Every structure is written in C-alpha cells, then in structure tokens.
Amino acid sequence: MKGVFSAKPFVKEGGTIVLLTKCHDGIGPELFQQWVKKVTSASEIKNKLKKEGYSPEVDHLYLLANLLDENCEIIIATPNLSSDEIKIPKIINSSEAALNQALKREGRDAKILAIPYSTRIIPEK
C-alpha cells in the first residue's frame, strides 16, 4: 500500500491509482488484512477506526479512506489476491486488465505516470 500513498501527490482529485505488485505476503499486516476483508467504503473504514481504535497496524487504512474520500479509485493489480475477499481497494488479477479499467474510468486521453520503486521515494509536487 505504501506505493499507493507515494503516488497521491501526482493524481488529480477523482483520479485513479494502479499499483502493480506481487503481494506475496498479502496486502499488509494481519490486522490490516482482516479489516480490508470487512469494509466496503471510506466511511466504513473511518467508523471502524473510531469504534475499535487506531493502531499502527491499521494506519494505512486511514490514509486509504482519505484517498477514497477524494473520489480516487485505487486498483491493485496482483495475481495473489482475490477480489472475492477484498473489496477496497479494487483487486484485479492482471496489469493489463487493471490499466484497461483505469482507462475506462479516466478516458483514453488520460495522462499516465509510472513510478518505479514508488515505496522508495519522497514525492514532491
């Protein structure tokens, strides 16, 4: 998920972020994985955080909720997660299908920025 947050400064409000990743170890820490299997919206995430409390294992959920509140669509392209289990972010099993989904939403004239090693950068506008 860190790669998603690094891309945020470069995405217009309402834009789409596509993260290409293997996710060999799942989508995050165990508690994070449990939560993303239960929530379907930004408001659900925020309500759950208010009700159950905030912990470092779920800090990325708060950041995710803020992106979703800005109408940003987040697509994770990975062969190792199932869209049947996780609704937020959107899981698509191939990079080509994920890019097609993003272009369908943004239009064929959309601007595309590739950020290799996005977890290793400090983004500046």
Automatic annotation (TrEMBL):
Gene3D superfamilies: 3.90.226.30. Pfam families: LarA_C (PF21113). It comes from the Archaea. Residues 2-118 form the Lactate racemase C-terminal domain. This is Lactate racemase C-terminal domain-containing protein. It comes from candidate division MSBL1 archaeon SCGC-AAA382A03. The lineage of its organism: Archaea, Methanobacteriati, Methanobacteriota, candidate division MSBL1.
